[in-house]
Specification:
170 residues
């Protein structure tokens, strides 16, 4: 028969010393690999989620811009239909330019100084056309021409000398 050795059990109160327990390492290679894979997955999903949120924000901005442009198009189409109406066109010609229908008599109301009241209803004054800048090569060529013709500086007359015999009688 085989002899079986008994393991010493935990010592009771006041009994023999306990056998030392073998502690397991806290981080195993499998645990480290699992943590690394989870970290890679979290980073990849976080970057994908960030890209998704940025795209959603961009889509919302584009939709808002489309809605604004649709409103502007609708307003312009409404304005265009108004200008196609002959009654509106005639009223605008009267209000803006002072046009009259055939057979009507126009009046202009003046203030105390003789200036017409409501003078803002006339045609707008045209602004002078802004001066166009000259081309760089024209400016460069002018400087070459000026360099070829130096200015003649008039010679100065000698200044009067004041001295002991100059006649400044004191």
């Amino acid at each position: 028969m085989a002899t079986t050795a008994k393991r010493p059990g935990p010592a009771g109160p006041g009994g023999a010393a306990r056998t030392p327990r073998r502690e397991r390492p806290r981080v195993t290679s499998r645990g480290a690999i699992l943590a690394l894979v989870l970290a890679v997955l979290v980073v990849s999903y976080a970057s994908s989620l960030r890209a998704y949120l940025v795209q959603r924000e961009h889509i919302a901005d584009v939709k808002a811009e489309i809605a604004e442009r649709q409103d502007a198009i609708t307003a312009l189409e409404r304005e265009q239909r108004r200008w196609e109406d002959p009654v509106y066109l005639a009223s605008q010609a009267r209000a803006r330019f002072g046009y009259l229908m055939p057979g009507e008599t126009g009046f202009q109301v003046l203030d105390e100084d003789g200036e017409p009241l409501g003078a803002g209803n006339g045609l707008p004054e045209t602004e002078p056309e802004p001066e166009r800048p000259t081309a760089w090569w024209k400016t460069a060529w002018e400087s070459v021409e000026i360099a070829g013709r130096p200015q003649q500086v008039p010679e100065k007359e000698p200044a009067e000398q004041i001295g002991p015999g100059s006649g400044s009688g004191r």
